[in-house]
Design brief:
The complex is a heterodimer of chains A (about 240) and B (about 250).
Chain A lengths: L1 H20 L2 H21 L8 H13 L3 H11 L1 H7 L4 H31 L5 H24 L4 H18 L11 H7 L3 H14 L3 H29 L2
Helix pairs in contact in A: 1-6, 2-3, 3-6, 3-7, 3-10, 4-7, 4-8, 6-7, 7-8, 7-10, 7-11, 10-11
Chain B lengths: L4 E12 L2 E12 L3 E5 L6 H8 L7 E6 L2 E2 L4 H7 E4 L11 H11 L4 H14 L15 H12 L6 E5 L7 H16 L3 E6 L2 H7 L2 E6 L2 E6 L1 H8 L4 H9 L2 H10 L1
Parallel strand pairs in B: 3-8, 3-9, 6-7, 7-8
Antiparallel strand pairs in B: 1-2, 1-4, 4-5, 9-10
Helix pairs in contact in B: 3-4, 3-5, 8-9
The chains are: A mainly alpha (about 240), B alpha/beta (about 250).
Chain lengths: ~240, ~250
């Protein structure tokens, strides 16, 4: 059974990448939007662009992993093609993991492009191992967050609306463009409950040669968020088919 | 259990809150048989298929397919059955060929056989010339045919067809019926739900008549007609389901 599930996860992710992700809307949402946002902020407050790079990478992770999540889940639920997948010898959990993996792979490709361009053009010297330790769990966290919010609603537009709430909340409160340390204390506490804060902080440490303990702590926190999001998502999808 | 019994259902029940969709039904389907499940809308036909194919858990009772329990061995069952849902739910954004290849991948068809099997099915279902066209551009009949083809990509032993010809024009429906007849000749057990009684009369070895979640009769179409003293299966169905007086009243009202 596990072999059937692994095969299902792989081919569902592959199909989603081909069908939904490598299309102009997903690419523009996943990569153009974060770049435009950061450039707009930079032009408004010119300074060191290097300081904005962790925020740019974090936003790319967030937006690219969730770029087509509403479509791959809610649209397919509506059309019945998600049910088609459940007729195959794979579990509901495997179907959801396949959907999440599609977002992760697309996010990984987009993030790699943005990170490489930033590193080469700005002559940065990040710790590559630290970057991987932060980027990989972050991809899973935000893709599973997208999946969770999508299975909570029925329609594609509802999912997009619901997804925008944590997206924009995290952009403003997770240190993407404004440092968490400079925010009011209450908001600082709130920021620690947001997964993107750990992504941004971890990426900042990767670029500035931070302590390995900090990186590992952030990576662990992100894995915790992934577990927190994926299990209810699987449970809710199960409920939809009961 | 008879060794040739492919589907065995005993006291199968499905309840959605207060609604009793399927009410303690019993039946058996033999190997190589084309078995029709007939009933008006809301009779419990689709609910029964969903329970037998693992999309829905029975509230009570037992069911087995190919000797495997639907509650505890559904993954093993799914590998050996094909399902054609009521809605043609393949992927609009994929071509006919890509849809079949994707299904072959999900069912674990060896990579060396996938293209060949898909090509064969596309020829059988007369879709080969449109193999690179997107599913979304197909007519309803072509979509239905490709959905049946997709259900056969892994050589299932049992094929579940839920309202296979609903919404199709006369030519497409006739063509699909011929394909279903061919499946029987190949030895595939077919479980078919329909509310087109002529279709059932034409295709099925035996039929079960269902109304309000209960099975009212199971027999060959010929025997049902004889027992009810009616000339057509439709008339026999009306008599068995108690709809005959209502129909007569409507006709008198004319």
């Amino acid at each position: 059974m596990w072999r059937d599930n692994l095969r299902g996860i792989f081919y569902i992710a592959l199909k989603d990448l081909k069908t939904y992700y490598f299309k102009p809307p997903a690419v523009s949402w996943g990569i153009v939007f974060p770049i435009t946002w950061i450039l707009a902020f930079y032009l408004r407050n010119p300074g060191s662009f290097e300081e904005l790079v962790p925020g740019l990478i974090a936003m790319t992770i967030l937006f690219s992993t969730t770029a087509a999540e509403a479509v791959v889940i809610n649209f397919e639920l509506r059309l019945g093609s998600l049910e088609r997948l459940l007729l195959a010898p794979i579990s509901i959990s495997a179907v959801l993991f396949g959907k999440v993996l599609g977002g992760v792979v697309f996010g990984f490709l987009m993030t790699t492009v943005v990170t490489t361009v930033c590193v080469v053009m700005l002559g940065l010297h990040p710790n590559v191992l630290y970057l991987i330790l932060i980027i990989l769990p972050s991809l899973f966290v935000f893709s599973s967050l997208g999946a969770l919010l999508c299975v909570m609603v029925k329609e594609v537009f509802e999912a997009q609306t619901l997804l925008n709430l944590p997206r924009f909340l995290m952009i403003f409160l997770s240190g993407v463009i404004y440092p968490v340390a400079k925010m009011p204390v209450a908001l600082q506490h709130f920021a620690h409950a947001l997964p993107l804060s750990y992504t941004v902080d971890g990426l900042r440490s990767s670029f500035s040669g931070g302590l390995s303990e900090t990186i590992f702590f952030h990576a662990l926190a992100l894995i915790g968020f992934f577990i927190l999001f994926i299990f209810p998502a699987v449970k809710l999808l199960h409920k939809k088919f009961e | 259990m008879n060794k040739d019994t492919v589907i065995r259902v005993s006291d199968l029940t499905k309840r959605y809150g207060e609604i009793l969709a399927v009410n303690r039904i019993d039946f058996e389907v033999e190997k190589g048989e084309t078995f029709g499940f007939l009933g008006p809308n809301g009779a419990g036909k689709t609910t029964t298929i969903r329970m037998l194919t693992g999309l829905s858990k029975p509230t009570d009772g037992k069911a087995s397919v190919l000797g495997l329990d639907v509650n505890s061995e559904i993954a093993r069952i799914k590998k050996r059955i094909g399902v054609v849902p009521e809605i043609s739910n393949l992927y609009d954004e994929l071509s006919a060929m890509d849809n079949l290849i994707f299904m072959a991948q999900l069912y674990g068809v060896p990579s060396s056989e996938r293209v060949q099997k898909a090509e064969e099915l596309l020829r059988t279902f007369r879709l080969h010339e449109r193999k690179d066209s997107l599913f979304g551009t197909f007519s309803r009949g072509m979509k239905r045919a490709l959905t049946v083809a997709a259900a056969l990509i892994h050589d299932p032993e049992v094929l579940f067809l839920d309202e296979p010809t609903v919404g199709l024009d006369v030519v497409a429906a006739r063509s699909l019926r011929n394909l279903i007849s061919n499946l029987r000749r190949q030895g595939i057990t077919v479980f078919l739900t329909t509310h087109y009684l002529e279709e059932a009369d034409l295709l099925c070895d035996r039929v079960a008549i269902l109304a309000k979640g209960r099975i009212l009769a199971i027999d060959t179409p010929l025997s049902l007609k004889a027992k009810t003293d009616k000339k057509s299966l439709e008339e026999a169905f009306m008599k068995l389901t108690g709809l005959e007086p209502e129909v007569l009243a409507i006709e008198k009202g004319k």
